[in-house]
């Protein structure tokens, strides 16, 4: 939802889709070679300040599943920290991180193992009912003191999985007072 913010029936998009559909309807670039993904990657690398490798996905869930696989493969670690009230998808891997409603997980347990969900460090709607800056960012200290020091060994964590913008909460930016240099 919201990954294609191009408007409803944008004429330029409809025309481009119609023209592309005349040449082919579907492909899997992971199994067959097509020039379009390569050309797009080359164009992106010309305008970005760094050279990147790309994985083009059909949507957010597929991209999130790929991110989980990459993190586990690269780090050789199995555990993840996710955040309560996030939505990452409806596949078994991403459902373990999605917790906006019990209905999305009902009847699907057990989900992907190794996922610990914690309250989001979100000053606007603080789960601890504290106020910034008097709270001294207790939300971040909680993750360290009560999760990483008590039952999730930090040396086994492949990564943190989070939404910088909460789409299910009305497109609200998260962590408005928490910056990476603070953590």
Structural account:
The strands form 2 sheets. The chain has a 3-stranded parallel sheet with strand order 2-1-3. The protein has a two-stranded antiparallel ribbon with strand order 4-5. The longest helix is centred in the middle third of the chain and has 16 residues, at 60-75. The protein has helices spanning 11-23, 35-47, 60-75, 92-95, 138-148; strands at 79-83, 115-118, 157-160, 165-166, 172-173. The chain is α/β, with parallel strands linked by helices. The protein folds into 2 domains: 1-56, no CATH class; 76-173, Type I PLP-dependent aspartate aminotransferase-like (Major domain) (Aspartate Aminotransferase, domain 2, 3-Layer(aba) Sandwich), CATH 3.40.640. The protein has 5 helices and 5 strands, in the order αααβαβαβββ.
Helical residues, percent: 25-40%
Structural class label: alpha/beta
Number of domains: 2
Strand content: 5-15%
* Helix-strand sequence: HHHEHEHEEE
Q: In the CATH hierarchy, what is the architecture of the largest domain at level 2?
A: 3-Layer(aba) Sandwich
Count of helical regions: 5
Task: Kindly report the name of the CATH homologous superfamily of the largest domain.
Answer: Type I PLP-dependent aspartate aminotransferase-like (Major domain)
Structural shape: elongated
Low-pLDDT segments, ≥5 res: 176-183
CATH fold assignment of the largest domain: Aspartate Aminotransferase, domain 2
Mean pLDDT, nearest integer? Answer: 84
User: Could you tell me the number of beta strands?
Assistant: 5
